[in-house]
Design a protein that fits this description.
The chain is α+β, with helices and mostly antiparallel strands. It has 6 helices and 8 strands, in the order H-H-E-H-E-E-H-E-E-H-E-E-H-E.
Length: 202
């Protein structure tokens, strides 16, 4: 009997390891890890309430645990999604807020946490500008030469420049500020906001 229990326990453990190791896809499901999103936006003027934003989010398939609050002129939103919506959902949300009467947007910053990417050394950083350079080769070369960074990629999604790289120290966030500074020194203008995340999100 004890041998049977020991064998069963080992089989269950191996099954769990197999599932978790499947490129992290089932890792999120096992641990109940919906992708978590947060967004902070600064406005000059906000509408009377945030019901429109809440309805828009809750009307999207798979979105739950929506929380909206205000601090001075900043709108703070957090929510979870049962499927990974990438950073695009945060940029869509900013645009929807603009349409719903939030006025005078000066900046926004967002983040997303995908449990399937837990423990990764990769970081992805999306930055929106009103005016871009002709191409991003200068920033791609700069990032590639940055100490402690490897496997770099830079591409565009509309007016958003996306930086993806493997960071030697995943706890180090100073590089994000360095990227913003280098972008502006390189001629990118009118930064609207940014979103950051750990992991690969191409």
């Amino acid at each position: 009997m004890n041998g049977f229990l020991q064998t069963t326990a080992v089989e269950v453990l191996l099954a769990c390891v197999f599932l978790v190791s499947d490129q992290g896809r089932i890792h999120a499901g096992i641990f109940g890890g919906s992708t978590k999103y947060s967004l902070e936006v600064s406005y000059a003027r906000l509408p009377i309430d945030d019901g429109g934003v809440e309805r828009w989010l809750k009307g999207r398939t798979g979105i739950h645990n929506v929380n909206i609050s205000r601090h001075s002129n900043s709108l703070n939103i957090t929510f979870e999604a049962s499927k990974h919506l990438k950073a695009a959902i945060l940029f869509e949300l900013v645009g929807e807020c603009d349409h719903l009467g939030y006025q005078g947007r000066s900046w926004f910053k967002g983040s997303l946490f995908d449990p399937a990417q837990r423990g990764t050394r990769f970081q992805t950083f999306w930055v929106e500008y009103s005016k871009l350079r002709e191409d991003d080769r200068t920033m791609a070369d700069w990032l590639k030469s940055h100490q402690g960074v490897s496997k770099t990629q830079v591409w565009r999604e509309g007016r958003v420049v996306v930086f993806e790289f493997e960071n030697g120290d995943p706890r180090e966030s100073a590089i994000l500020g360095e990227i913003l500074k280098q972008c502006e020194q390189s001629g990118y203008q009118g930064r609207a906001g940014f979103v950051d995340a750990f992991g690969r999100h191409r």
